[in-house]
Fold this sequence. Notes:
By secondary structure, this protein is α/β, with parallel strands linked by helices.
Amino acid sequence: MILLDGKKVSKERNLKLKEDIQKAVEKYKRPPKLAIILVGNNPASLSYVKGKNKACKLVGIENDMYHLDENISEKELRNLIISLNQDDTVDGILLQLPIPKHLDEDMFIDLIKREKDADGFHVINQGYLYQKKKTIYPATPKGIMTLLNTYEIDPKGMRAVVIGRSNIVGFPVARLLMDRGATITVCHSKTKDLGYHTRQANIIVAAVGKPKIVTKDMVKPGAVIIDVGVNRVDGKLIGDVDFHQLEDVASYMTPVPGGVGPMTIHSLLENTFELYMEHVKKD
């Protein structure tokens, strides 16, 4: 089994991205800027934001952090996003999810200007993705495809099973795999006999947030396994896949941590740089 080492790949690609940013700064006289909005004190969100801040500094992206109170009103959050939309020095905006339940998540995602949507979650950007038009891709699916490309895994002609149907991972990664020529099955909580589907798959993308939902008896020898799950069990981070059971079954597999996570952050940095380049070329 070959490890799909997202930590290694993202580190190498971040060094190249840093060089590209340095060249752009020399030409356009300012660095890219990403605004991150965090509402509340969710421990996982705090950890993710810390990682994103660190990654931004590494590659030369200026990062403004807005840490807001858990009980902030819709009006206050709306005013902040509108002001960032209007700020010409801000190239990308990221609203860290989840946000408190009294706030309308979909409304605030779509309030972010499409041209500053660093996460690729805006309804128009997702619509462009499904129509195969140039757009900003959601960071996790983009990171998954980059990882497959780096290890020269071509989905063309393969059967791919995606477990999970969220607009953040499941649906967009299914679309991207389909665009690369894979035959797609999307499974979810209502799917009967999940193992029946996964046993036919050449590629399995597990993105449901349930520890070890994919076991040895559900995978055919030689399958490529992408584990998007991040679950904390007994103080340890584990994925949606039973990694140790499948080490002798899979041909390629991502670890948790160190697989998809670093690639997601790298893709966010790439997205921010792409938005920046579109922005400065118009100035």
